Amino acid sequence: MPGVADLHAGSFGEVGTYLPGRRVTGIRIRDDLTEVHVVAAMGSPLRELADAVRSAVTPVVGTPVQVVVEDVVPARTTEP
After folding, report:
1. Is the residue at 57 inside a domain?
2. How many domains does the chain have?
3. Are 44 and 30 a contacting pair, CB within 8 Å?
4. Measuring CA to CA, which residue among 11, 6, 15, 73 is closest to residue 38?
5. Are 39 and 6 in contact (CB under 8 A)?
6. Per-residue pLDDT for the chain (80 aa), expressed as one digit of tens each?
7. DSSP string covering 20-53, please?
8. Over the range 11-27, which residues count as b (16 or more CB within 10 Å of their CB) and which as e?
9. Torsion angle, CA of 54/56/57/58, rounded to 10 degrees?
10. Which domain holds residue 26?
11. Taking the model in full, what pTM does it have?
12. Contact 37, 10 (CB under 8 A)
């Protein structure tokens, strides 16, 4: 998603969920809430970024979605 540089595992690596055969870092799914922890690209409007992530994830999980911006890093540039 534009503006999201990566998912973030939290300060102590505690944010994650398990799928068959793998762990997905940065996503925590509970019965009543889904948390998405992201690293934002610098220059991204954070409120709009959180709204976009929430809008993309909510229909998939069917619970309220809390978006946590854990860090901001320089935006990646593509070289010609």
Report:
1. yes
2. 1
3. no
4. 6
5. yes
6. 999 999 999 988 899 999 899 999 999 999 999 999 999 999 999 999 999 999 999 999 999 999 999 999 998 766 55
7. TTEEEETEEE-SS-EEEEEEEETTS-HHHHHHHH
8. eeeebbeeeeeeeebbb
9. 70
10. 4-73
11. 0.88
12. yes
